[in-house]
Amino acid sequence: MLKLSSINTNIAGTPILRDVNLAIEPGVLVGLIGRNGAGKTTLMRTVMGLLTPESGSITIGGQDMTDLAPHFRSQAKVGYMPEDRQLVPTLTVEENILIPAWANALSGAEARLAWVYELMPEVEAFAGRKALQLSGGQQKLVALARALMTGSHILLLDEPFEGVAPALSRRLASVLHTLKDEGLTVLLSESDYSHSADLVDQIYTIERGAVAAQEGAVK
């Protein structure tokens, strides 16, 4: 479903990702574990086309996406939840969720939104509120809901549990369990295993931009 081959990514001339190889099969939830500054966000942004690798290839659903613009990821049904959420504070929750559908002229947006609300009814409960009125944990739920508008095949979740209160962390984990049961492919980054240990099928570790598969991590 997702394959990175010999990816090298620089930022402002500084090498960040170093010869990264990573492969995720359909329906698998994979953890990308590494401390802050290890390169997790750079890897996610490279997959999403927000950063261009110096070398290597990115394949999504069998299609080479290496040199394609970011919006082609939405067409490939990839959803992305950035670490800092990146909600538009003055828009309502529902408007934030619908932004990917509007930007990409997605068909079936209303049906997809109804499915998202069924999955996370608490998000529907504050759908009319401005994003700036929400707590950090609530904003994480909204960012996940927005990612799900396009991410019907693959989800990339960058530090979804960071800065979230325990109750909302448990709720996020519950939603991810449901998505996993429905066969969604997920790449989830985290600084350690504190929240993802019971979720992931496979683990990759990242250190100083180098990625390695952890032996014995597949359940």
From TrEMBL:
Please give the Gene3D superfamilies that the UniProt record associates with this protein: P-loop containing nucleotide triphosphate hydrolases
Residue ranges constituting the ABC transporter domain according to the UniProt record: 2-218
Keywords on this record? Amino-acid transport, ATP-binding, Nucleotide-binding, Transport
Q: Superkingdom, according to UniProt?
A: Bacteria
Q: Name one GO molecular function term.
A: ATP binding
Keyword check for Ligase, yes or no: no
Membership in a protein family: Belongs to the ABC transporter superfamily.
Q: What is this protein called?
A: ATP-binding cassette domain-containing protein
Organism per entry: Neptuniibacter pectenicola
